What we know:
There is one protein chain. This protein folds into three domains: 30-155, Orthogonal Bundle (Cytochrome Bc1 Complex, Chain D, domain 2); 189-295, Cytochrome Bc1 Complex, Chain D, domain 2 (Orthogonal Bundle), CATH 1.10.760; 301-429, no CATH class. It contains 17 helices and seven strands. It has helices at 4-26, 43-55, 58-62, 101-110, 125-128, 133-143, 167-175, 189-199, 248-257, 270-278, 282-295, 301-312, 331-343, 364-367, 372-380, 400-414, 423-429, and strands at residues 75-78, 81-84, 157-158, 226-228, 231-233, 259-260, 264-265. The radius of gyration is 23 Å and the shape is globular.
Amino acid sequence: MITAYRIVGYFLIVTTLFTGVFVALIFSNTEIEPIQTTPKFAPESIERGEMLAKIGSCSACHTVENGLDFAGGVGLPTPFGVIFSTNITPDPETGIGTWSFQAFDRAMRRGLDREGRHLYPAFPYDFFSKTTELDMQDLYAYFMTRKPVKKTAEKNDLVFPFSYRPFLLGWKTLFLKDQLFYPDPNLSETENHGAYLASSLGHCGACHSPRNIFGAVISKKSLQGGTAEGWDAPALGTFSNAKIKWREDDYANYLFDGWSEQHGIAAGSMTPVTDHLYDADEDDVYAISAWLAALTPKQSDLDREFLIASANALDWPNSSGIVFDEELPNKKIEAGRDLFLQKCSKCHKQRVSNTQPVSLALTFTVNAETPQNLYNVIKKGIQPPVGSMNRKMEPIDLKEEEFSLVAAYVRWHFSDEKEWKELSNFSGQHK
């Protein structure tokens, strides 16, 4: 049955498509003349540009695994197909070596390459547009002084009409606004600096916000949780459902090391982010932590200690082979409990050392709206961030039907959130 929402959505898609095509046919985007020689840059500008590139985690999208830095070729999955990142080294033929600062700045702010072609918003220029002129110049200095790599961009694998670039003009008309960052008078200078970095080059809202049918961030729901490369990204600040409210030191530890004692480890697409922040400017990372803390409701020490103790009480006994003593509601939960004993309890048990995993009851993975992240970590394991190399989790060998049993038990035992529905269907659809 076609709902009214879908009808409106289809109408907007068609309207936007034809708007983009019509305007594109009338107003062609001009090519910016190539530069013949690379400008000279001050060392401090290059150094600052490197720190900003780490805040933006540019390498995560523009460097394939075991590949050459910034040469592109990373496949970015979207609901409309796969978009491959481009070569942003200063190679004059396949990279940005002939790009002036004007061309670089236009690409970052308006999503147009030097030749005037529209760039797909998988490259988050809707966030980058808020970057200051000085920071943009420093970023340009950094990329134009990298080692050139000759590598032609791979062809995107998109379905029509999304494969037709003039369509993007309609998307930009609806969703790309000329926005500057305006400091919040209620925040400190440090907190405002963190807010600026997070909302511009850091593009935190790109993953941690829901998107509409066009793939655009829903601005009214910024930071209320989203998805990224097959992972659920938690809501941040005011909207976080974390049992233990994040404090500034929690955020700082997590952003630097990919680990928080009360919240757990970074995984999936968040891991490369923390890997880059590990080497970023400390003042920048602390500023982002301060901003996030300013957004997060406060929690008293007494409440915090009570919730930690309550979560710890759900941890399995530390002795090997000992089953958590509780009355189980049905055979499914009992079967899941037995699998947890066999497959999971060796590591996920009562903490006697801070090198052990955090209590599952405190994790977003177990308390999330969907079991997506639990499925991912079981099937793929966790490759630890560089700041927490001793916290690796190996994949767990579970059949699809076994996953549904373990997930049902874990949700029932470690969380007071509503049960996950259709777990068997979920596991079969997310291979």
